[in-house]
Design goal:
- Residues 185-282 form the DUF4145 domain.
- The protein is α+β, with helices and mostly antiparallel strands.
- The protein has helices at residues 99-111, 151-168, 177-191, 195-212, 222-234, 243-251, 272-289; strands at residues 8-17, 21-30, 36-52, 58-71, 81-83, 88-96, 116-131, 137-150.
- Strands 1, 2, 3, 4, 5, 6, 7 and 8 form an 8-stranded antiparallel beta sheet that branches.
């Protein structure tokens, strides 16, 4: 008995940048000369980064999940592709990349010497083979399509995605990526109802920002900055933050003189209100620190 040969061929035609992720254009071709194929939507899929480890091992690392965006068929969510013999149809898929993964990609591009970065697109969907004949049969299609991308082109995409995320949050676009990554993790933790984790990341975001601006030293906490700003006010020196933002920062207890141990980290009884105030004030402080 001969092995089954899948008559459906899938090719990547183009990879471009959307506002916050990849736009991947695919061509679906029915290579059967006599019978039709019907592709059933939705198409599920994932994009992985193929990381080259030091020991020569290649590790697949999740980047994003694909979503259908447009096609030459109207209402792609409701209609299915019917591919006549030798027919090709095209569709574009969006793959939004979360901010923390954008930061991971950014670090990866900075740490490798290769000019090409390899990704792997994995697709999973159902198709009706020999559609409309007595021999039609449903098949599960699992397709894996590797492709390479120029490192400099990917860096251009990353810069565009960061700009989009910053604009969505009304934050300056010049905030360093590691600080932005911590801020978005604080937001993500809050959305997952992990309020303590959210406060920790918001606090860390502000510490990194103050450190990067030279306003605190290594191992100093936000309380050192607050105390310094108070002393400036007494001597009528120009303060870094506006009075409004500074007063808010000074009023929130989690920004106070906290320590590294569980007993003095000021994270007991953190409420939803505590977490959202911490994020909002961190955001206001970031806006003022990096708009100057």
């Amino acid at each position: 008995m001969s092995a089954y040969k899948n008559p459906l061929q899938i090719d990547i035609m183009r990879v471009s940048s959307g506002a916050r992720g990849f736009l991947i254009s695919l061509a679906f071709k029915n290579t059967d000369r006599r019978n039709s194929i019907e592709i059933w939507f939705p198409i599920d899929g994932y994009l992985d980064l193929q990381r080259n480890e030091k020991n020569g091992y290649i590790r697949n690392e999740y980047v994003c999940r694909i979503l259908e965006t447009n096609s030459n068929i109207k209402k792609i969510e409701l209609d299915d592709y019917l591919l006549a013999p030798n027919q090709i149809k095209y569709s574009t898929f969006l793959c939004n990349v979360e901010p923390h993964i954008v930061h991971r990609l950014y670090n990866y591009t900075n740490n490798i010497n290769m000019n090409n970065i390899t990704f792997n697109l994995r697709l999973l969907f159902s198709a009706l083979i020999n559609a409309g004949t007595p021999y039609q049969k449903t098949k599960k299609v699992m397709s894996s399509i590797p492709f390479s991308f120029k490192k400099n082109a990917l860096r251009g995409f990353i810069n565009q995605w960061y700009t989009s995320y910053m604009e969505a949050e009304n934050l300056p676009g010049n905030i360093p990526s590691d600080i932005a990554d911590n801020y978005f993790e604080a937001v993500r933790s809050f959305n997952a109802n992990a309020y303590r984790a959210s406060v920790v990341m918001a606090r860390r975001t502000l510490e990194l920002a103050l450190l990067r601006k030279g306003l605190i030293k290594e191992k100093e906490a936000i309380a050192s900055f607050i105390q310094g700003e108070k002393e400036k006010k007494k001597s009528s020196e120009q303060r870094v933050l506006s009075d409004k933002v500074f007063d808010l920062l000074n009023a929130i207890r989690v920004f106070g003189n906290y320590g590294a141990h569980v007993s003095d980290d000021m994270l007991n009884d953190i409420t939803e209100e505590d977490a959202i105030l911490t994020i909002v004030i961190s955001k206001k402080a970031l806006s003022e620190l990096f708009s100057k």
